[in-house]
Every structure is written in structure tokens, then in C-alpha cells.
């Protein structure tokens, strides 16, 4: 019986049975040190698991579907990045022009990268039958490389930065747009340079 208890899979079995509080009692520690180790293990699990589970649930709740979304570029369908201060009116006007029949029958995608969740009105617009397969909303920061990668920005045909024409401080808005444009251009250049080298 002592030999059986020294096999690795029996230790796994004992740990799972003990931590899950089933406790069959067919294997048990019989030394003081062994009992102390098991008490420490159980206390650690009782404290650690609920804490980690609670953190995981909060992270999952905090992230919207837009924050999890990743756009995958296609060789056949060109896409552009839309970012900056995008209002529903400016988006409607822009998309009306972008998808106008005068530009040909070729499909194209618009990928919005915004730090904000879409407003209810914008969400309705995005889910319209004519838009939902061509406009993609990605909640993320265009000043973070990981979010630009989620939008496949290095493969985009263009990047359009929207600005609020009704802003109280238009110079500040212009500076932010200029800085954002430089950052995205530098990211695309460096990314493609690394691809060429590698």
C-alpha cells in the first residue's frame, strides 16, 4: 500500500480530491509535516481561487465585444482605418461617399478604431444591413501598437483621422490629429521595415 502512494498520479488524485473538498480518505498524509503541507495547500486554495475567479469575471465584464474584436485583413478586399473624433453624422457622410456606386463595384472595408464604445445611434448605423459587413468597430487606443495590430493597420490602404469641427479649441484638436497621424505612420513604417528584414 505504501508503494501505491508513491506514484505520481496518486499525488495528483489526492490533491484534486482534497482541494475539491470531496476527501474520500483512501489516501491521506500520516506525518506531521505532510499534514501541515496539506493544511497550507487547502488554505491557499480557499483564499486564492475565489480571488482569481472574481478578477477574471470583472475583466470579462469590463471588456465589450468591441474591445475583444480583431479585424483580419483580406488580400481581395482593401480596408481603411477611421479614427479620431468620429461622430455619427461625420461617419454617415463619410460612408455615403466611401461606398458610393461611382467608386466602382469593388468591395472595401472601413475599420473604426476608437477609445469609446459606440453610441446607441452609431451601433444602430453599424448594424444596418448595408453596413454590417463593411464597417467594423474596434474599441481600442490608436496610440497603442497592440490596438493598431488588432486593426491590421499596417495592411490598410489609408488612415482617415476625423476632427471635431465644432470644438472650442480647434488648434488643440489639430495638434492631436497631427500627432496621431505621425504615430500611425511611424508604426506602419517600422512594422513593414521589420517584415522586410525578417
Task: Summarize the structure in words.
By secondary structure, the protein is α/β, with parallel strands linked by helices. It is 52% helix and 11% strand. The chain contains 8 helices and 4 strands; from the N terminus they run H-H-H-H-E-H-E-H-E-H-E-H. The chain has a 4-stranded parallel β-sheet with strand order 3-2-1-4. The termini are far apart. The mean pLDDT is 85.
Short account of what is shown:
With 198 residues, the protein is α/β, with parallel strands linked by helices. 52% of the residues lie in helices and 11% in strands.
Poorly predicted spans: none
**Helix coverage percent of residues?**
40-55%
Radius of gyration: 27 Å
Give the count of helical stretches. Answer: 8
Q: Give the tally of β-strands.
A: 4
Average pLDDT, all residues: 85
Features:
single chain, 198 residues, alpha/beta, 4 strands, elongated
Blueprint of the fold:
Layout: H1 2-5, H2 8-19, H3 32-62, H4 65-68, E1 79-84, H5 88-98, E2 109-114, H6 120-126, E3 135-139, H7 145-150, E4 158-162, H8 170-197
Parallel strand pairs: 1-2, 1-4, 2-3
Amino acid at each position: 500500500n505504501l508503494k501505491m502512494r508513491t506514484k505520481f498520479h496518486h499525488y495528483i488524485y489526492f490533491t484534486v480530491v482534497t482541494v475539491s473538498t470531496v476527501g474520500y480518505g483512501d489516501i491521506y498524509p500520516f506525518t506531521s509535516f505532510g499534514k501541515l503541507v496539506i493544511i497550507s495547500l487547502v488554505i491557499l486554495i480557499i483564499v486564492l481561487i475565489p480571488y482569481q475567479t472574481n478578477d477574471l469575471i470583472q475583466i470579462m465584464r469590463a471588456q465589450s465585444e468591441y474591445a475583444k474584436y480583431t479585424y483580419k485583413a483580406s488580400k481581395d478586399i482593401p480596408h481603411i482605418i477611421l479614427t479620431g473624433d468620429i461622430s455619427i453624422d461625420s461617419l454617415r457622410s463619410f460612408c455615403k461617399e466611401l461606398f458610393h456606386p461611382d467608386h466602382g463595384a469593388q468591395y472595401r472595408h472601413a475599420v473604426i478604431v476608437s477609445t469609446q464604445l459606440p453610441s446607441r445611434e452609431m451601433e444602430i448605423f453599424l448594424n444596418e444591413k448595408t453596413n454590417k459587413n463593411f464597417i467594423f468597430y474596434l474599441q481600442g487606443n490608436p496610440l497603442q501598437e497592440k490596438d493598431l495590430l488588432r486593426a491590421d493597420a499596417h495592411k490598410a490602404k489609408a488612415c482617415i483621422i476625423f476632427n471635431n469641427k465644432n470644438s472650442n479649441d480647434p488648434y488643440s484638436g489639430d495638434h492631436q490629429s497631427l500627432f496621431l497621424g505621425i504615430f500611425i505612420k511611424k508604426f506602419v513604417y517600422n512594422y513593414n521595415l521589420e517584415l522586410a528584414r525578417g
